[in-house]
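Many introductory courses stop at the sequence. We go one step further.
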Amino acid sequence: MVSIRRLLTIIGFIFLISILGLAAITSWYTVDESEQAVITTFGKVEEGITEPGLHFKWPWPIQSVKKLSKETFSLQFGYKEKDGKVESFPKETKMITGDENIVLADMVVQWKITNPAKYLFNAENPKEILRDATSASLRSIIGSTKIDNALTSGKVEIEAQVQELLSSLMKKYDIGISIIAVKLQDVDLPNEEVRKAFTNVTDAREMMNTKINEANKYRNKRTKEAEGERDAIISKAEGDRASRIEQAKGEVALFNSLYNEYKDSKEITEKRLILETIDSVLPNAQIYIMKDDGNTMKYFPVQPMQQVLPNDQQSQQKADQSSENTQKRGENNGQD
């Protein structure tokens, strides 16, 4: 009887020590800098822990802790790379473009767990949901894109559209995942014959673009030359206009001067204008002024004298002749 009681005491003591040890062991946990934790009380989510360090909780089975990584994960869609070897999955990457061509497209999605509680309890397999959403997003965008853009310059736009659509799906599914980046690894044609045909089309398009660029360059050159010629013509026309305006102003001033002289002495001005006009129209003509007594006097020019005399004497002769003619014109006008 005593031995049985003693045995039960020992067993109870061992059980108590075990419970206390278990409580001591499960009441503390550590969170690293690269981890985040979720605390559950009898299976109910209490809070998320993101601060690193040593933390206290109620012992198991009252509370339990689940730890998840903060790192950025990579989802490889359409291929699998391991130990430097790449394995492709054509059935997964084959899709139809917006202009009904078949292409093979694979990509990498970088994602993080931003809400560990939702990641753990809102979905049974969030990674599988992410893969299916990636496939749906990529097929949707490729299905609205022409093959030329998908194979050449449209990859950046496709990546942006896929990331936007995939992010919206993750928010809708609410599984605690955030999309960091999306990168198209490769977009290719399904067989060699199609690749060759498309390469020919691409080469022809590049040649067309080259010719267009050359034509635009020549057009710009000719346009600049024409603009230069136009500016030169405009500049010359403006110069001619200014010259003619000044000439017209001079002619107006001359006319006004003559008109003022004409008002003061009409007869003298009329004779002067007649003589100057004759001299201008007939520069080689010899002009004579007839007096009433029948005598004649040579007026201008004195051609024989200018041809015989030296240059300095011709100049003096011209001065004397001009003075004499002026005097005689005055006498004639007085007689008239």
